[in-house]
Amino acid sequence: MAQILAPSAQWQMGISKGLTDATPLTTKMWGSLALKQGSVKSSAKFGVFAVKSDNSTINRLEQMLNLDVTPYTDKIIAEYIWIGGSGIDVRSKSRTISKPVEHPSELPKWNYDGSSTGQAPGEDSEVILYPQAIFKDPFRGGNNILVICDTYTPAGEPIPTNKRYRAAQIFSDPKVSAEIPWYGIEQEYTLLQTNVKWPLGWPAGGYPGPQGPYYCGVGADKSFGRDISDAHYKACLYAGINISGTNGEVMPGQWEFQVGPSVGIEAGDHIWCARYLLERITEQAGVVLSLDPKPIEGDWNGAGCHTNYSTKSMREEGGFEVIKKAIFNLSLRHKEHISAYGEGNERRLTGKHETASINTFSWGVANRGCSIRVGRDTEKNGKGYLEDRRPASNMDPYIVTSLLAETTILWEPTLEAEALAAQKLSLKV
């Protein structure tokens, strides 16, 4: 990931007024996303995947999807987005709002059937959505918005899958907010063919050539799904997500996008909204999105969500000593972090394919086989950031970002723990 220099100016989650008249990403702009690798054969464009419909039907649907209603009404569509019962499934539904809004506080709370998402019993199924962050909607355009929400009981208690609530508590702690924690998150993901659930570009039931030419590769035999990555990139920029880059990954059919630098709770909001956009784009392209940390067993790279992290003290003179103290704390809570860093991560963190062993904490300068990597520039300048390489691609960014802040800013080890760790871990570079 490119070095992180400064945080976004949009971290208050407002909508830039200057973006109101921007052109949405229409189906015509995404027409090139008709699949070439998959089993579906269609000339339909990105917005409508109608295999047997005639062109007139497709054109009428496109016209309706792209209607500009702003000359006729002040009403907008708000897409309420939340996290479902598995902890990684994204859900959403739409409602009409009487006029454009600029802040989540202007939006009403809403509810949904939690028994259908694995978040409430059937006899008391109502779950309440609290709007928390707003993004522009690249699918509908205009003043329409995407709304990141968290989830509560009717009595106002956060439900167990609401990890944002606890993260917001940690980030609002005066000690944490004074350190202005920055995050740069590298989200890896795998694109799968719809019917066979096999990576995009791979022969059905077979394997491509070994890893090597695919990372940041160019060419029809090396890059599979670039249009999806590019469409997602532009959708994120349109929405106001602080996306900082993308690249093809080591395993063919695997990609990465980076979000950040983001401040505090913003990091989780931006990653979740970026995941929602990616789900919608792959849905329209007829491709399956996988966040499995090891989608293909064997000599293939897994998928992680490396999290770059720094505090104000780390970024100032003498910051390298603060980083080493943070690494020391992280070493003492390795098991707690691993247990919160994603499901199936034991299949990925094997000590191979640029990972450390899940059972052993390690750190090093420029070492991608460690739990924590410190960059050469950080060592040279005596200040900077660290990279936690342990989180899996399906990790919850609210949990990971807040846990990093808690462990490195709020948590203090006991004297006994420090003495024991001193025997096991050397903090010499």
TrEMBL record:
Entry EC no(s): 6.3.1.2
Catalytic reactions of this protein: L-glutamate + NH4(+) + ATP = L-glutamine + ADP + phosphate + H(+)
Keywords carried by this UniProt record: ATP-binding, Chloroplast, Ligase, Nucleotide-binding, Plastid, Transit peptide
PROSITE patterns cross-referenced by the UniProt entry: GLNA_1 (PS00180), GLNA_ATP (PS00181), GS_BETA_GRASP (PS51986), GS_CATALYTIC (PS51987)
GO molecular function, one term: ATP binding
Source taxon at top rank: Eukaryota
Main localisation: plastid
A Pfam family per the record: Gln-synt_N
GS catalytic domain boundaries: 160-429
UniProt xrefs under PANTHER family: GLUTAMINE SYNTHETASE, GLUTAMINE SYNTHETASE, CHLOROPLASTIC_MITOCHONDRIAL
Assembly notes: Homooctamer.
The name this protein goes by in its record: Glutamine synthetase
Record lineage: Eukaryota, Viridiplantae, Streptophyta, Embryophyta, Tracheophyta
